[in-house]
Design brief:
The complex is a heterotetramer of chains A (about 650), B (about 475), C (about 100) and D (about 475). Chain A has about 650 residues and is mainly α. Chain A is built from 27 helices and two strands. In chain A, strands 1-2 form a two-stranded antiparallel sheet. The longest helix of chain B is centred in the C-terminal third of the chain and has 32 residues. The two termini of chain B are about 20 Å apart. The radius of gyration of chain C is 17 Å and the shape is elongated. With about 100 residues, chain C is mostly helical. In chain C, helix 1 packs antiparallel against helix 2. Chain C has a single domain, classed as Helix Hairpins, CATH 1.10.287.3510. Chain D has a domain of about 210 residues. In chain D, helix 7 packs antiparallel against helix 8. The chains are: A mainly alpha (about 650), B mainly alpha (about 475), C mainly alpha (about 100), D mainly alpha (about 475). Chains in contact: A-B, A-C, A-D, B-D, C-D. Chains A and B meet through strand 1, helix 5, helix 6 and helix 26 of A and helix 12, helix 16 and helix 17 of B.
Chain lengths: ~650, ~475, ~100, ~475
């Protein structure tokens, strides 16, 4: 199995440590949970942090390597004949590793404060550590089977964490829904593996991508679509997105880490990882790009109609991942990944900021019962404000650069209408994010719950959030500014340069320049902001906010309150028919038809028994008659047989 | 005395001797039973693989009491002995002494089945292994009809097996053939002989539409017995397919694979759909078995290397997780005195260990990557796809999705949700109860992470025996 | 030999047939026994006729043995009939059907 | 031609003589008996006679001799059947230890011994006269034995048996006369003449002869007497009938099919027998389904079991005969064992052991008896680890090998039906008490228990050490 295709050399045992440290944290927290008490949080975050440091070390070592490429690989063991597992660190996985362990560390650390006093404190950190381990498995694996293992395990971690408060029926249902939909995705990846192994006879990335050129277009398309089913389920793409808003039943740090920063972007990773396959199939790119764009738009529209602070963020996550998928789907890999990168920071920040609010309001999540909080929680307000500015793509903030790249990337790769969708979505994004900000923080406080701010240990929650503000504001500019000459492009050059050139050669250069799109985006964003301001932030709006919000809720179109009927459709098409068939088979077919048929046989046997018994009348002469009848048959036979012989 | 003989006779003799113990001494019965099963496990591990043979018949065909493990049966025998030890350790039923004796008898007869190298001896133990279960159903079952259903279906299978064995012996001249290389039956009779075997195997597995004995049986038997029956006895048919049909009549098998594939696929989806809506927790697992074992039948009908390897892995995996599932459901029933899912709920708060055990088993059952079930599923389906069966593979994938739905429904329905006030509050797993499921869980994880040892020695494509290292 | 063997066979068959009919239709066990005797004697007639035909006196011996056995059988049979019907008013086999099913 | 018999001729029938003498001895001993318990003495003397006869007969094995100018063949086949008859006799005699009219059982024991003489005569008989004599000797004794208890049903069974059996014997006799007419000889060996194949007389004679045999084997539709007689007769007599009558009739049938048919007619001539055997396997097993009386159940079971045995002979191969004998031996042990258990839970009256309801919960009250009964029932249903299993598979194998697939199929179908009926009894014994108790706990009866134990051991041991007489075919003739 060769990794040379990915430009990676050497073996690197440090990777194993990087990979397994969080697992150790999980096992310790799980096994010794009650004994550890709050130590569990420190231990878990410490181990994730150590993992991050190792990742940095890896990066450092990798950039020193002779070939001048970033990365390393480490064979692990042979799972079964033909299935060799190994770890692979290349620019792509390195980036994800940074986010998983880096942002992961901050969020786990934040959780120490957020989960304080929870009866299952240690269990939470066991799950979180386990998630980090699983996600590392996903991104570090050097083959599809290993990726699938990680793919499944992150789904499990997500399930555990969504259903963390498992006495809440809603959480339990949400966890199950998330898991089942994620299994749909797993199954898609599995199917892709079948096709790959049947055609390539290996599940390694290297072998697969090396063979990508030799596979027929039908095969490639099948693989890509199957993989995309996985990506869509994991990354909440239409129509498999319905689990993500429900997943907000989990504790807020979970939403920040799993359902915003890392796990839900696994689909982006998968598509970027399989760039050689997507490059080989224009149809696949079209499908994926379209669905990405559609998700971005739908997520944004639904985001405007939510009242739950976390659900707004969830739909925004969905929408933002739509951007990413659109980016990597259309071939603008660097742009899509950039969007992931910046999103990880500002969305984590937004969630953690929202977590501060929720925590302070004793788990109140409805923004209609908030308001005026900027006075009571200025820190949270500033955190949220920077996050909102970044996500809305206000020039200068990280989100601006990455979103710009994605939108322009669509155009660049020959999908002008996706470009249009991207622009419109940007405007809607600005609208609903500012709506969130204004309704939550401006005006007068509308809730009943008392607001607790500060208290001992508040710094545990505040510090990570504060740290996150820095990259969410600045990292975009630092890395992305400069287009093809940016550090970002340089970093990914070994991976995507060839494809980028290939794609550029195929598609005519767009008539519009990048700067021109940027201007349009800024204008649209400004429009979105203005509408939000008009509706929620003017003095009049602030004054009778209660009535206005109620009216808005009452006049909300049914199609929005019903979330475009996706849940109802899935229920009607899949869930209820399955249950109906199950009931029919279990209650009717088994007992009536199958057992009925067997019962008939038994009845026939019993009937024969009765028949036999009915000949046993007990009357001697009847017996004699039967005897003579038999004898007559015999005699007849022998008379005929004797004569015939 | 050769170890292979010891491993078969030890449980049988122990079962008989156990009946001389005083009736009331439950702890002693359990202890002795567990010890015997554990020793049996050790003997299988240590030397149950060497051959031992005693001449039986020379006419109308050659037959011998020939025992010894083939690479496949070695693993199944290990699974069996492990499951039995765990089941006995977990047993809490009334009339425990008799129950333990029955479990040991079941173990001995099933060891005889899996370790026999002679078809006639195989057929002998086939019928024999049904008897302890019948007695358990008679003595401990809830509905008299269940015992009949088990009995009628399985002995009907046993009879066709008998006829097929006789015909095989007459045509081939010897039945001392299991695991022997180069045995191949062809010709006009072969399809009929195959049909005789296949019917017995399909009933035992079971496969739709021969499955209706299974859910009530699994539900009615005391859970420890169910765990052995569902975990291991259900593998008898699959092992039979591998050791007899695949090995000796591959031509017939693959020429008539289509109906098998169809039945397997129907079982896969049918079992999953019914499991989705059952309310009796043991029936959920029973129907899930129908679905899961359909996958193995599918693999056998496809029959390429990957599928067969997957079948072996999945046989072991399914044995482990269904054993755990039933044991844990037994614990639940014992604690809460009900098996109805709507009446259960919220146990996870007070019983974290119980909840954890059920969780791991349920996850293995739904094919979570990293646990043993996944390895088997993946290999099987790769094999299925490789042979060009795209739609069967897709149907199986649908069943996997359904599996996640019903397994989570089962797990969450029992463990999650608000704490119920109408259920008795009981303590979490005791040490013994925990130890009874721990080895099975450990094996599930171990084989999921590293299933290679299972396949290293199993020359499964031809199912020929060779000396195990 | 004026009477051809076929006539003996016919006569014997008719006797046998009458005996069979007697067993079936008569309700008195004694008469049934007599019918059986008739069947035995039909066989005897056949034996004697064939003994004559083949000039083999073993047929005679066989016939004598049959006669002896038939006598013994009649003795036992009568005893059984008597014990069976002693409590009954009428001798009718149709009254005897305690065992059935 | 001088008719003189040598010592060898007399030696050949020595076992029969010994048995007859033992019967006399039982009666004589009873003459000297006081009022005391003489039941055991009669049984023990009878058993001794059986034992001596068995030893003497056993010593003849392998020394083939055609005694009385071929009228009685001994040394091989006959010896095997004689031994089976003796086993059956001994097993039945043992049951008199609990069951019988009052303390005096000498008369019945003696008659039973003499009846067994008839069966032994049938085992070796090679001419029509001997066959007829043996058959009548066996039957006459049985008529009396059936009625030898003061019970209405017993008398009824005797009457039914008497009328029906003698009617069937008349058919056999008429057939024998016709065979004599066809050959001019009473020797079975003379039937081998190939020219007979085209003689209608021979065909008709053989047919009517077979009717008589098939009646004794109680194959459908000549079975109607069996359930009633088995149910009505005293337990030991039922046991005796179920084993000894069948053994005798089977010996004659086997000799007739193997050693007395012209070449090339076998398949066609015996076809009706195979057909009725197939029907018997079905009807016998179906008939068991709704029975409430053990003896009646075993009667139907016997109808089917004999069907299995007869099927083994289809095709006329030596192996078939061996397996028929094997299964017959196994069947003897299973049935005798089952009757022994029935006797062990009965009082002097056998009603209790007959009622299936008295087996309910037996496992609690008498676990060992229940275990033994389970073994016998498993054996009857053909399940391992019993001789019934092996016997059935051997018969299946030989039937398939001989090309009689439809018979094998009927065997399987019949067995499938029978499983339910046998299992019902097992279930009743082991089911947890459901309110209603079974009968009282009867005292320990050593002889019946011993008989059950021996039979159980034999039934299991025969599986693992399948003793079938080799080279049986040359010995038939």
């Amino acid at each position: 199995m060769t990794h040379q295709v990915l430009g990676v050399v050497g073996s690197y045992p440090l990777l194993v440590a990087l990979w397994l440290l969080p697992l150790a944290g999980a096992v310790i927290c799980w096994a010794l949970g009650p004994q550890l008490r709050t130590l569990a949080g420190w231990l878990a975050s410490g181990l994730v942090g150590a993992s991050f440091i190792l990742a940095v070390l890896c990066w450092h070592d990798g950039t020193q390597s002779a070939a001048g490429t970033v990365g390393a690989n480490q064979p692990l063991f042979s799972w079964m004949t033909g299935f060799d597992f190994g770890l692979l660190l290349d620019p792509l996985s390195l980036l994800w590793t940074f986010i998983i362990t880096g942002v992961g560390f901050l969020i786990v650390f934040y959780s120490i404060g957020y989960m304080r006093g929870d009866p299952a404190f240690a269990r939470f950190f066991a799950y979180m550590s386990f998630f980090v381990f699983a996600m590392l498995t996903l991104v570090l694996s050097d083959n599809f089977v290993g990726l699938l293992v990680g793919w499944g395990l992150v789904g499990l971690a997500s399930y555990f964490l969504i259903g963390f408060w498992f006495d809440r029926p809603a959480a339990v249902a949400a966890a199950r829904k998330a898991f089942v939909i994620n299994v749909v995705g797993d199954v898609g990846v599995m199917f892709a593996i079948f096709v790959i192994i049947a055609n390539v006879h290996s599940s390694g990335f290297g072998d697969t991508f090396a063979a990508a050129g030799t596979l027929g277009p039908g095969v490639i398309l099948t693989i890509c679509i199957a993989l995309f089913i996985g990506a869509a389920a994991k990354s909440a793409q239409v129509p498999l997105h319905t689990w993500l808003p429900d997943a907000m039943e989990g504790p807020t740090p979970v939403s920040a880490l799993i359902h915003a920063a890392t796990m839900v972007t696994a689909g982006v990773y998968l598509i970027a990882r399989c760039a050689p396959l997507w490059n080989a199939s224009h149809e696949a790119q079209l499908v994926v790009g379209t669905i990405g764009g559609l998700t971005a738009l739908l997520g944004a529209i639904l985001g405007t109609a939510q009242w739950d602070i976390k659900r707004i963020l969830a739909y925004s996550t969905m929408s933002q991942i739509g951007y990413m998928i659109m980016g990597v789907g259309t071939g603008a890999y660097e742009a899509g990944i950039a969007q992931f990168f910046t999103h990880a920071f500002f969305k984590a920040q937004l969630f953690l900021g929202a977590g501060l609010v929720i925590h302070a309001l004793s788990d109140e999540q409805d923004i209609r019962r908030m308001g005026g909080l900027w006075k009571k929680m200025p820190f949270a307000f500033w955190v949220m404000l920077t996050g909102v500015l970044s996500i809305s793509g206000v020039p200068g903030f990280s989100g601006f650069f990455s979103k710009d790249e994605v939108i322009y990337g669509a155009l660049q790769h020959g999908h002008p209408w996706l470009d249009g969708i991207g622009i419109v979505t940007a405007g809607i994004t600005a609208y609903y994010m500012f709506r969130l900000l204004f309704v939550t923080f401006l005006g007068e406080y509308r809730g009943e719950a008392p607001v607790h701010v500060g208290g001992p240990g508040a710094w545990i929650m505040n510090v990570p959030v504060a740290i996150l503000v820095v990259p969410s504001v600045a990292i975009g500019g630092a890395l992305l500014f400069g287009g093809d000459a940016s550090p970002w492009a340089h970093f990914f050059a070994p991976l995507f340069a060839a494809q980028a050139h290939l794609a550029a050669a195929q598609t005519p250069a767009p008539a519009i320049s990048e700067n021109f799109t940027s201007v349009i985006v800024v204008i649209v964003v400004a429009i979105g902001f203005i509408i939000a301001w008009q509706r929620y932030a003017t003095a009049a709006a602030r004054r009778d906010a209660v009535q206005r919000l109620r009216r808005e809720a009452e006049t909300m179109p049914a199609v929005l309150t019903n979330l475009f009927y996706f849940d109802a459709a899935i229920d009607a098409i899949f869930v209820r028919p399955a249950q109906a068939w199950g009931l029919f088979f279990g209650r009717v077919f088994d007992p009536r038809v199958i057992d009925g048929a067997v019962g008939e046989i038994v009845l026939i046997a019993r009937g024969l028994g009765t028949l036999v018994r009915s000949f046993q009348t007990g009357l001697l002469r009847a017996y004699a008659l039967i005897l003579v009848f038999g004898a007559a048959c015999f005699i007849a036979y022998y008379a005929v047989a004797g004569a015939a012989h | 005395m050769p170890l292979v003989l010891v491993s078969i006779l030890l449980p049988l003799v122990a079962a008989a001797l156990l009946l001389f113990l005083p009736r009331g001494d439950r702890a002693l019965s359990r202890l002795l039973g567990t010890a015997v099963a554990a020793i049996t496990f050790a003997t299988v591990l240590a030397g149950g693989t060497a051959d031992w043979s005693l001449h039986w018949l020379s006419r109308p065909f050659v037959s011998a009491f020939h025992f010894g493990a083939t690479p496949i049966s070695f693993w199944i025998a290990l699974l069996l002995t492990l499951c039995t030890a765990c089941a006995i350790a977990a047993a809490r039923v009334e009339r425990l002494r008799d129950f333990v004796a029955l479990l040991l008898a079941l173990e001995g007869t099933m060891l005889g089945l899996f370790l026999s190298r002679d078809l006639l001896v195989f057929a002998l133990f086939w019928d024999l292994m049904l008897v302890p279960v019948f007695f358990a159903l008679v003595g401990w079952g809830e509905h008299p009809a269940t015992a009949w259903r088990y009995f009628i279906y399985n002995f009907a299978g046993g009879l066709t097996l008998l006829l097929a064995t006789a015909a095989f012996g007459v045509i081939y001249g010897t039945t001392d053939v299991i695991g022997l290389p180069g045995v191949a039956l062809a010709g006009g009779w072969a399809p009929w002989i195959f049909a005789g075997f296949a019917f017995a195997f399909l009933v035992k597995t079971p496969v739709w539409p021969l499955h209706t004995w299974m859910p009530p049986t699994y539900a009615d038997l005391p859970s420890p017995m169910t765990s052995v029956v569902a975990g291991v006895q259900s593998k008898a048919g699959l092992y039979g397919f591998l050791a007899i049909a695949t090995a000796m009549m591959p031509g017939v098998l693959y020429r008539h694979a289509a109906p098998l594939i169809v039945l397997a696929l129907i079982s896969l989806v049918y079992g999953a759909l019914v499991a989705l809506v059952q309310n009796d927790v043991k029936r959920i697992v029973a129907y899930s078995s129908l679905s899961h074992l359909g996958l193995i039948v599918l693999a056998i009908a496809i029959g390429n290397r990957l599928a067969l390897e997957g079948a072996l892995v999945y046989i072991i995996a399914h044995g482990l997780f269904s054993a755990v599932l039933f044991l844990v459901l037994g614990y639940v029933e014992e604690r809460e005195e009900t098996r109805a899912l709507p009446r259960l709920g919220g146990l996870g708060w007070r019983n974290p260990r119980l909840s954890g055990a059920l969780c791991i088993a349920a996850l293995a059952a739904l094919g979570l990557p990293g646990l043993a079930g996944f390895a088997g599923e993946l290999l099987i389906l790769i094999g299925v796809y490789q042979n060009g069966y795209v739609w069967p593979a897709i149907v199986a994938l649908v069943a996997i999705v359904l599996a996640s739905a019903y397994m989570l429904r089962l797990y969450q329905g029992i463990m999650n949700g608000p704490q119920r006030t109408d259920l008795p509050v009981r303590a979490d797993l005791t040490w013994i109860e925990g130890l009874a499921v721990a080895p099975l869980l450990a094996a599930l994880v171990l084989l999921g992470v590293y299933p290679k040892p299972l396949l290293d020695n199993a020359a499964i494509t031809t199912v020929q025996s060779g000396p195990l290292p | 030999m004026s009477v051809p063997i076929g006539d003996y066979v016919t006569l014997a068959s008719v006797m046998f047939f009458i005996g069979v009919i007697g067993v079936i239709v008569r309700r008195n066990p004694l008469i049934m026994l007599m019918s059986v005797e008739l069947m035995f004697n039909a066989a005897n007639l056949l034996l004697i006729a064939y003994a004559r035909l083949w000039l083999q006196n073993v047929g005679h011996i066989f016939a004598f043995i049959v006669i002896t056995v038939a006598a013994a059988e009649a003795a036992i049979g009568l005893a059984i009939v008597v014990t069976t019907f002693r409590p009954e008013k009428y001798v009718d086999v149709d009254d005897i059907a305690a065992l059935h099913g | 031609m001088t008719l003189s018999f040598t010592n060898a001729d007399w030696n050949a029938i020595a076992p029969i003589d010994i048995l007859a003498a033992a019967g006399l001895a039982v009666l004589l001993a009873d003459l000297f008996a006081g009022r005391k318990q003489w039941r055991y003495a009669s049984i023990v003397i009878g058993l001794l006679g059986v034992l001596v006869a068995a030893i003497v007969a056993g010593r003849q094995f392998g020394h083939q001799y055609d005694a009385f100018f071929g009228g009685f063949m001994t040394g091989g086949f006959a010896t095997v059947f004689e031994e089976i008859v003796l086993i059956g006799t001994a097993g039945s005699l043992l049951l008199y230890s609990t069951i019988g009219p009052g303390p005096r059982v000498a008369g019945t024991v003696a008659i039973m011994l003499w009846s067994a003489c008839g069966a032994m005569l049938m085992a070796g008989a090679a001419n029509l006269i001997a066959i007829f004599l043996g058959l009548e000797l066996l039957s006459l004794g049985l008529y009396a034995l059936c009625a030898a208890v003061d019970r209405k049903t017993a008398r009824e069974s005797a009457l039914k048996y008497l009328i029906l059996s003698s009617t069937a014997t008349a058919f056999l006799l008429f057939g024998a006369a016709l065979l004599f007419g066809a050959t001019g000889s009473v020797m079975l060996a003379d039937l081998l003449n190939p020219s007979l194949a085209s003689s209608p007389l021979f065909w008709m004679g053989a047919g009517m002869f077979l009717i008589g045999l098939v009646f004794k084997l109680s194959l459908v539709p000549f079975h109607t007497w069996t359930p009633d007689v088995f149910e009505g007769a005293p337990l030991p007599v039922t046991a005796f009938m179920s084993v000894v009558t069948k053994a005798g009739a089977l010996a004659v049938f086997a000799r007739f099919t193997y050693a007395a048919l012209p070449a090339g007619v076998g398949a066609k001539l015996l076809l009706p027998v195979w057909i009725v055997a197939a029907i018997s396997m079905i009807v016998g097993n179906v008939g068991m389904l709704a029975q409430t009386d053990l003896k009646r159940l075993l009667a139907y079971s016997g109808i089917a079991q004999i069907g299995y045995i007869v099927v083994a002979l289809a095709g006329g191969t030596p192996l078939g005969l061996r397996y028929a004998i094997y299964y017959l031996t196994a069947y003897a042990f299973m049935n005798l064992g089952a009757f022994a258990v029935a006797a062990a839970i009965s009082g002097p009256d056998d009603e209790e052991g007959s009622r299936l309801s008295s087996y309910r919960g037996l496992a609690r009250r008498r676990p060992w008896l229940a275990a033994a009964m389970t073994i016998f029932l498993l054996a009857l249903s053909g399940l391992p680890p019993t001789a019934g299993f092996l016997g059935k598979i051997l018969i299946l194998a030989v039937t398939v090998a001989n090309g009689y697939i439809w018979l094998a199929a009927a065997l399987i179908a019949g067995t499938a039906i029978s499983l339910y009926a046998y299992a019902k009894v097992i279930r009743a014994m082991y089911a947890p008490e459901e309110g209603r108790q079974g009968g009282d706990l009867r005292p320990f009866v050593p002889l019946a228990w011993a008989s059950a134990a021996v039979c159980a051991v034999a039934v299991i041991a025969m599986t693992f050490y399948p003793l079938t007489p080799s080279n049986i075919l040359p010995l038939v003739r």
